[in-house]
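Hey L., structure's done. Input below.
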Amino acid sequence: MLRVVLYQPDIPQNTGNIARTCASAGAELHLVRPFGFRWFGAAAAGDPRLRRVGLDYWPYVRHVLHDSWEKFVEGLEPGARVWAFSSKAQQPYTAVAYHPGDYLLFGPETRGLPDEVLRQFPAVTIPMPGPVRSLNLSVAVGIGLFEALRQLGVSGEG
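Output:
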């Protein structure tokens, strides 16, 4: 199973879209506090914008909450592979050979991953030949996650 990590997500609608994407892909969603929205236990009890976008898929979302970045890192098993997605990286996300259990790490919408986080793990980028500086977070997660699934030969059948 692949794992998507959102470092301090700001926008509840993006987080809801990503949760739904993770449910469809069979991926586990890790959320690292602080958030830019309310979270009260189950997602359905939190921010109404988060509930609305996640629709009725929240029961299918495997999610893990981390109180801080340090707690997330401390909880990684030995040998865990974390790929930090960033517009600051040079290596294309397609140049990586993804493995089951990999963590795909994404930063907050308004500022991306901080340098101190980027120094901890190998970083990859989604090439953007157009004039924009970044993609919407939920789009970037979908691109990275489904490339990893494609490489792993996951067909979605059965």
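The two ends are 16 Å apart (CA to CA). Residues 137-151 form the longest helix (15 residues).

-- N.
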